[in-house]
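Would you be willing to look carefully at the protein I have copied below?

:::
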Amino acid sequence: MATTRIANAHWEGSLMEGKGTVSLDSSKLGTYDVTWAARSAEPNGVTSPEELIAAAHSTCFSMALSHALAGAGTPPEKVDTKAEVDFQPGKGITEIRLTVRATVPGLDEDGFKAQAEQAKQNCPVSQALAGTTITLDAALA
C-alpha cells in the first residue's frame, strides 16, 4: 500500500523580493521560511528546496544502505550520510554529492563500497532525482 506525505508552500511577492514558508503537514513538525536569497546565496537561518532535497536524499540513502547491509547479513552499527545539493540560478540543480561513513562489523571496504553503490541506485530518492548527477564517496568509519 502506498503512503502519501504532504507539504505545503506559501509564497508572497516576486521571486527576488518575495518570501514564503513551507510546512511539513504530514508530520506536523513545523513551518519553515524560504526566500530566493536563501536559495541562491547564503541561508541565514532560512531553508531552501535544495536543503529539503538534501535532507530527503541523505535520509533515504541511509535507510536503503542499512536495509541492504542487514539483508546481506552485515547489519550496520551506524550509518552517517551527508548530501550536498548544488543549485545554480538559471540552470537548476546541477549535482548531488553523497558522502557516507559507516561502522559495519564483518564487512571490508570493497564490500561496503559495493553495497553503498547499490543503495545509491536503489534509493527511491536517488531514482526520483535520476536526471541529476549523483556522486558517492563511501568508506567505513
